[in-house]
Amino acid sequence: MSSALTAVSAAGLDHRVVTHGPVTSVTEAAEVQGVEIQDLVKSLVVRRAADDYLFVLVPGDRQISWPKLRTLLGVNRLSMPDAATAKDVTGYERGTITPFGSLHPWPVIADERLRGRTISLGAGIRGTALQLTADDTVSALSATWADVTDPA
């Protein structure tokens, strides 16, 4: 069991584990999981400063709006770490990243369009997803709801 599955269970969250084969896109992942693309959530790692990261939960049909995120965080510069750094700071490879069970409890911002939806997140294991409500996810992670995306 991945540390993500352990963390979700320990938090007492009602969830479903979905196992699927390899996928090559967000669209394909949504199809094989039987969810709408906006419910397939990309857990993106963003670097604020040296050793200061956060997770941004982005609907599958949207992308981070860097101006909105910088304004929300009150910073002038943000960046996405490379794959090796993302793994070092979360414990997860790209495509499996989730805030649940991360090596460090980085802050989490969830795009407000996820509110009230059932979402599918990475589960820390390739080919596996967690389906749970966005509201429970945000509560369990002490995350912040915000408008931080634009259409993809």
TrEMBL record:
InterPro entries: YbaK/aa-tRNA-synt-asso_dom_sf, YbaK/aa-tRNA-synth-assoc-dom
Record-linked SUPFAM superfamilies: YbaK/ProRS associated domain
YbaK/aminoacyl-tRNA synthetase-associated domain segment(s): 20-136
Xref: Gene3D superfamilies: YbaK/aminoacyl-tRNA synthetase-associated domain
Highest rank taxon of the organism: Bacteria
Transmembrane segments: none
Identification of the protein by name: YbaK/aminoacyl-tRNA synthetase-associated domain-containing protein
Source organism of this protein record: Winogradskya humida
